[in-house]
Amino acid sequence: MKLYRHSFVILVLVMTLILPGCWNRKELNELGVVLAAGIDTVGNQYEVSVQVVDPSAMSKQRIGDRSPVLVFSERAPTIFEALRKMTTKSSRKMYLSHLRMLIMDEATARRGIQEPLGFWFRDHEVRPDFYIAVAKGRRAKDMLELVTPTEALPAMDLYKSLEVSEKSWAPTAAVNVRELFQTMTLDGVNPVLSGLTIKGDMEVGKQLENAKQPLSFAEYQFVGIGVFREDRLIGWLGEEESKAYNYIMNRVFSTVGRVKCPGKEGDFVVEVTQANTKMNPMIKNGQPHVVLNVFVEANIGEVHCKVDLRDAQVFNAMQQAAQDSLAIILEAGVHKVQKEYGTDVYGIGEAFHRKYPKQWKEWKKSWDDMFQNDLKVEMRFDYNLRKLGKIIGPLQKESGE
User: Fold this and answer.
1) Structural contact between residues 360 and 352, judged by C-beta atoms closer than 8 angstroms
2) What is the CATH number of domain 239-401?
3) pTM for the whole thing?
């Protein structure tokens, strides 16, 4: 028994030597928790800005009207240098594991995002789940300085808004760093990023008063989708064209659309509840051809024309009108990307790569030119209106006849 006890004690002592302690611990009062970062190009340098949580302002005993976040900014030839240089202005080292949003200005995006993103792909502290956007017509730094009324932490407001708008509206693309990295490493597909701008008086929008009244002086807005060729921004898609992109890429979870009433004055509104697009690449006469099979289920949300939805012919005509309206949107979006920009953001080339790997070896180097000039895109629709709501037709007084 004594031998057993001695052996147990020795084993415990050995284990304490082998097991490491918290050798890499970080105390919260030594860290600046970064929720959002911005990259602006200034000459031949990057101006890196970070939005850092102020713990004292977030506590229950908040100090007066102090902002819940702080913004630090520094310029350097590289991202890493700029971040470390911030220690000359802050007593805390920037901690990036809780990053939610990374924003770049247009100048950086047009020059090429691969170099400035290299640090965020590589650094072990950064988790690959934050979203990336391009500041359209504004500096990325401006986006971080805006005081948002909905959330106490502006970065979380941007993060949640991008998620919600993609799922409920559709003309935005919530692209995280993992998706962007995968897209940039694949052949036959180019990346996209949502645009972000500020509407209103930016100078007042930087002050706490922007969140102290029902109607703010300045507010952010996600506007359209930026299309890239390889890692360079080359243009923007409008609202309808951005929605077309999301339909083709199976990123529409729910949205609404306005449709002209067939044979009547006025419009009706549909709420899309389910959408799915299957891409079928094929080769016809030696040229690339792709069929997009689009399936949609929707409900009628509003009716602004005098119709009787109980009439099967009327209902079928409205269903066909909704399908035709969607077809116009998708065809216009594809035409814009294919003919004007000539960059395959839909991944059609990647679909050919998977289905026809031998043929793809011949097409790979000239795919951008083939996508723009030779590719034929055919669309087939299966559009179904389901629910009508609680009333039939528009609200109106009876004629009394």
Assistant:
1) yes
2) 3.30.300.210
3) 0.87
Cα distances (Å, whole numbers) of residue 121 to 115, 129, 130, 176: 10, 11, 11, 11
Residue 180: which residues within 8 A CB-CB, separation 6 or more? 117, 132, 191, 193
| Domain residue ranges of the chain, discontinuous segments joined by + | 28-237, 239-401
Q: Which residue in the block uniquely carries the two structure tokens 């009062």? A: 29
User: Taking a C-beta distance cutoff of 8 angstroms, is the pair 195, 136 a contact?
Assistant: yes
Q: What is the pLDDT of residues 20-37, one digit of tens each?
A: 555 455 555 667 899 999
Tokens of 73: 């900014």
Count of Cβ atoms closer than 10 Å to residue 269 Cβ? 16
Tell me the CA distances in angstroms from 340 to 235, 307, 344, one per residue in order: 9, 40, 11
Is 266 strand, coil or helix? Answer: coil
pLDDT of residue 400: 46
Q: If you count them, how many residues does the chain have?
A: 401
Strand partners, 281: 290
352 in Cβ contact with 288 (< 8 Å) = yes
